[in-house]
Design goal:
- This protein is α/β, with parallel strands linked by helices and 442 residues long.
- The chain contains 18 helices and 7 strands.
- It has helices spanning 2-21, 26-33, 45-57, 62-103, 116-127, 129-134, 145-150, 157-171, 174-179, 196-205, 218-230, 268-278, 302-314, 323-332, 345-348, 350-361, 367-370, 374-395; strands spanning 186-190, 210-215, 236-240, 253-259, 279-292, 336-343, 399-408.
- Bound molecules: S-adenosylmethionine.
- Residues 117, 121, 137-139, 191-193, 196-197, 214-217, 220, 242-244, 259-261, 264-265 line the site of S-adenosylmethionine.
C-alpha cells in the first residue's frame, strides 16, 4: 500500500506543478488586465501598455484593447495548448504510476492452510487462459541455440513445451531406460498440472506403463482426466494428493518426474525425501524447478530480496532455494547416487516474454475469456507483469532454471545419510552461462 500512497503523492505533485508552471490562459490574462496595478506588473508589454494608458486617461480606449488582444492571441492559444498538454502528461503519468504500484504489489501469497496453491490452479484451470496460450503444459518451453539465433518468438510456443519434455527425458536418462529395454513401468508425475506431461509420457512409454499424476487442484484433476479420456489414453490417471505426504508405499515407482512443482513446496527437504521414498531402488528421479541463485558467498542485496519477495508472493510460492541446495538435499537422503544438476536458464528464458508476446499478438485467445469479468482482466495483467518480472530476474542471474537428476541406490548399497556435502556436483548446459550486466538477448 506504501507504493500506492507514494504514487498518488507523486501524481498530485505533478498535477500541482503543471498548474504552477504553465503560462496564464487568455481568459486569465484578460482578467488580470482589469486587476489593480500592483497585481498586473508581470503582464506582457502590450497589456502593460494598455494599463498605463488607462491610468493616464481614466478609460481604456477600444484601440488599445484590440491591439492587446491581437498581440496576445497567438501566445494565448499556445499557452492554452501547453497547459492542457502538461496536465494530460501529468494525469497520464499519475495513472501509470498508480497502476505500476498496484502491479508491483504481490497479491497471491502462499498459505498452506488455505491451500492457495490448489485454489490458484483451480482458478487458472477454470478461466482457461493459460491452456489457450500454453496448451496442456504449465511449464517453460525449450529453445535451442539455432532457434534462439533465429529468434525465439518465431518458434511455436506449444512445440517449445513438448521440446522441453523431450530434452528433460533425454537429460534425465529416461530415453536410456527405454533404449536399454527397461522402460519405466510405473511413473509418478509430481505436481502434474492438467496432465500434459503425464499423458505425453504415457503415450511414449506405451500401454505397458502407467503414469500417475498428483496435484493439489481438484479442477486440474478433472481437466486432466477429461483430456486423457478424450485422447483415449488409458494409462494415465490423476489424483489430488499432497507431494509432502504421499499415500504411496515406499519403492513404488521406476521413475519420479517433477516439473516445476518444487517452487510451491514449503519444505524442500521433505519434497526431495518423499520423492526418494516412493522411488524404487535403481529407479530414476528427475526434477526441473525455478531456483534462486546461491547466496552463500554473495548474500542477496535488499533490492534483490524485494524482487524475490514479489516473485514468491505473486504466484503462491513459499520461497525458492538454489540449485546447489537441491543437490545437497538429494545427497542428504543418503539414498541417491549419480546426483547431477544443470542450469537451463539460457534454454528456457525466452518463454517468459514469448508468452507476453503471444498475448499481444493473439488477443483473441484471452480477451473473449475475460469478457466483462474485470477482475479477470486485472488478474491477467498481473500475470503478464509477473511474467516480465520473472524474465528480468532470470536475465539478471537472480533466478536460475534448476535441473536435478539421480538414481536411487539399491538396498545393499544404501548408506547412512551423510552430512550435507559442502559443494555438490553441478554441470551447466551450455557450459558457462554468465548473465552479465545486461539482459539476455532473445
Ligand atoms: C507449474 S504447475 C506444473 C504442472 C506440470 N508439471 C506441467 O508441467 O504441466 C505446478 C503444479 O504443482 C502442483 N503442486 C504444487 N504443490 C503441490 C503439492 N504440495 N502437492 C502436489 N502438487 C503440488 C500444482 O497443483 C500444479 O499442478
Amino acid at each position: 500500500m506504501l507504493h500506492a500512497h507514494r504514487a498518488v503523492a507523486a501524481c498530485l505533485l505533478l498535477l500541482a506543478s503543471a498548474q504552477a508552471f504553465v503560462p496564464l490562459s487568455p481568459a486569465r490574462t484578460q482578467l488580470a488586465a482589469a486587476a489593480p496595478p500592483a497585481a498586473s506588473r508581470a503582464f506582457t508589454s502590450s497589456n502593460q501598455h494598455a494599463v498605463a494608458e488607462r491610468d493616464a486617461q481614466g478609460t481604456v480606449s477600444m484601440a488599445s484593447r484590440s491591439a492587446a488582444l491581437a498581440f496576445s492571441l497567438p501566445a494565448a492559444l499556445t499557452s492554452s495548448f501547453t497547459r492542457r498538454a502538461a496536465i494530460a502528461v501529468a494525469a497520464t503519468t499519475a495513472v501509470v504510476l498508480v497502476v505500476k504500484a498496484l502491479l508491483d504489489k504481490p497479491s497471491r501469497p502462499y498459505d498452506r492452510e488455505a491451500n492457495t496453491v490448489g485454489n490458484e490452479y483451480d482458478a487458472w484451470c477454470e478461466d482457461g487462459i493459460l491452456e489457450q496460450v500454453w496448451g496442456e503444459h504449465i511449464h517453460l518451453g525449450y529453445y535451442d541455440t539455432d532457434e534462439r539465433k533465429r529468434g525465439s518468438f518465431r518458434k511455436d510456443i506449444i512445440q517449445a513445451k513438448y521440446d522441453f519434455i523431450d530434452k528433460m527425458m533425454q537429460w534425465g536418462g529416461v530415453n536410456d531406460m527405454i533404449r536399454s529395454g527397461h522402460a519405466p513401468k510405473k511413473v509418478l508425475d509430481v505436481g502434474c498440472g492438467i496432465g500434459g506431461t503425464s499423458r505425453y509420457l504415457a503415450t511414449k512409454l506405451g500401454e505397458g506403463s502407467e503414469v500417475v499424476g498428483i496435484t493439489l487442484s481438484p479442477k486440474q484433476v478433472e481437466r486432466a482426466t477429461q483430456l486423457a479420456r478424450d485422447r483415449k489414453i488409458g494409462n494415465a490417471r490423476f489424483t489430488v494428493m499432497d507431494a509432502l505426504a504421499m499415500e504411496f508405499p515406499d519403492d513404488s515407482f521406476d521413475l519420479v518426474w517433477a516439473c516445476e512443482s518444487g517452487e510451491h513446496m514449503p519444505d524442500k527437504r521433505l519434497y526431495v525425501e518423499e520423492m526418494t521414498r516412493v522411488l524404487k531402488p535403481g529407479g530414476r528421479i528427475v526434477i526441473a524447478t525455478w531456483c534462486q541463485r546461491d547466496d552463500h558467498e554473495r548474500p542477496f542485496t535488499p533490492r534483490e530480496e524485494r524482487k524475490l519477495d514479489f516473485l514468491y508472493s505473486e504466484w503462491t510460492h513459499p520461497h525458492f532455494i538454489s540449485i546447489q541446495d537441491y543437490a545437497k538435499l538429494m545427497d542428504g537422503t543418503g539414498q541417491l547416487d549419480n546426483i547431477s544438476t544443470a542450469d537451463w536458464t539460457v534454454q528456457t528464458i525466452a518463454s517468459w516474454r514469448h508468452t507476453i508476446w503471444m498475448g499481444i499478438k493473439c488477443p483473441w485467445i484471452w480477451i473473449p475469456r475475460c469478457g466483462l469479468r474485470w477482475a479477470l482482466w486485472w488478474k491477467t495483467f498481473k500475470d503478464a507483469w509477473c511474467l516480465e518480472r520473472m524474465s528480468q530476474a532470470f536475465s539478471a542471474g537472480l533466478m536460475e532454471y534448476g535441473m536435478m537428476k539421480a538414481i536411487k541406490r539399491k538396498p545393499k548399497e544404501a548408506r547412512e545419510a551423510p552430512a550435507p556435502a559442502e559443494t555438490a556436483p553441478r554441470e551447466r548446459d551450455p557450459p558457462a552461462f554468465n548473465p552479465g550486466p545486461g539482459p539476455i538477448q532473445q
